[in-house]
Amino acid sequence: MFNNVYKNRKVLVTGHTGFKGSWLCLWLRMLGAEPVGLALPPETQPSHWDLLGLDMRSEYVDIRDRVKVREIVEDSQAEIVFHLAAQPLVRRSYREPIETWDVNVTGTVNVLDACRNSSTVKAIVSVTTDKCYENNEWVWGYRETDRLGGHDPYSASKAAAEIAAASYRRSFLDKGNQLLATARAGNVIGGGDWSEDRLIPDLVRAVKSGQNLEIRSPAATRPWQHVLECLSGYLMLGEVLLSGERKAAEAWNFGPEKEGNRPVEQVLQAVKAQWPAVEWHRSASPQPHEANLLYLDSSKARELLRWRPVLSFEETVEMTASWYQEFIENEAVSSIRQLEQYCALASQRGVAWSGAAA
């Protein structure tokens, strides 16, 4: 997979204790990489990171600590950095706007600056979000060249992180041999996410406590995708950067096929079909502003990277629901098995990164 580019390669992952970061570290270990993690301790119990129990170096550091970040980047001897550490929650950003801006912008600048001063880093994939675009509630998908913006502090801070990354690329990295790309993914679901104010984790907690879930915006449409889909894009992008392809050092969208753009209520109905215990009702209380309609156009990644999703919407929901079912009913962690199944499906379906013939 990925032309064996990660085998025996030193990789730094910021935000490794989070939902996406822990899955990425699991995949990197499967690929034979030597990952080092830099993040705060897990914020939830249970946490996917703790459940995996991966054999790798893990440093609990706040990315706002500029000196410590630089020390770890240099000491890791990493050739590629995947920057995922962030304050990733929209509703929390309303409660803690200063922290959100500080982590997502200053923290990102600290990581990028440490990378540019590193003697080993060749490539950086800085992860932001589909919400970094100025949302006009368009019925078509946003492209990488569309205007950045954001209503809430989370979305706006991620747009600012994109601008910071572009500045570092033009001011410093383009002058040397380090390549920096940013990655914007859709609404990511999958087993092991226990974050607050996210649809699937909230639903799982409601099922476990025997309650109905209160839904804020059942008609809100999002580009739903499994966590492994966007991670395959990040890894593919990292492979291209490590090969020295300077044209890849820019922004990239990684979203589902059009059929993956679904209202929240359709996602709930699909989960319930897999897991009958799921119940919900619409909230009657006023809610802070969140976008109602959001699509991503991932044509560039499909055409230039030959990246494409592996799973259908139904397969995405089934894989997600079954992970939580197995965990709640049997205390089983099926992450390794699901990753192996996903890679096998990618190979069967001729997806480029899997090594199969397209």
UniProtKB/TrEMBL annotation:
Residues 12-320 form the NAD(P)-binding domain. InterPro entries: CDP_4_6_deHydtase, NAD(P)-bd_dom, NAD(P)-bd_dom_sf. Gene3D superfamilies: NAD(P)-binding Rossmann-like Domain (3.40.50.720), UDP-galactose 4-epimerase, domain 1 (3.90.25.10). Pfam families: GDP_Man_Dehyd. Signal peptide: none annotated. This is CDP-glucose 4,6-dehydratase. It comes from Rhizobium lusitanum.
